[in-house]
Sequence to fold (126 residues):
Amino acid sequence: MRDGADEIIKTELYAEIESLEEKYRAIEDYFKGKEFNTLEIVGIFREFRKILNKISAHILMLYTIEGQKTKIPWDSLFKNIDNALDTLQTSAHSNPKPTIQLSLNISEPKIEEVMSYLLTLKESLQ
Fold:
């Protein structure tokens, strides 16, 4: 049972990381100047956060199955994604990108570091 559950979680984790990569590329495009309407970019950030939360749960399950404990240190990033969403939804500025980008850059770890970790994890799941 453990091996079967382990493989299911790994398969789901791999697919979730791929979905997260897609959302991350859209976020990068946004910061590089690609035009998105507010609803579209808010949806992308929400989906990114939702998928990252699922990935965290999968990682925790894998460690639990292996009889190990771990902590996912991404609370700062989650908080700053929420701040970015608030900024997007309530900003009176015509260009909230710099504020959003700063919010994500002060996360510890940064969004880029989390993505790097997850891409390495994805490779190990193949």
DSSP finds five helices and no strands in the chain.
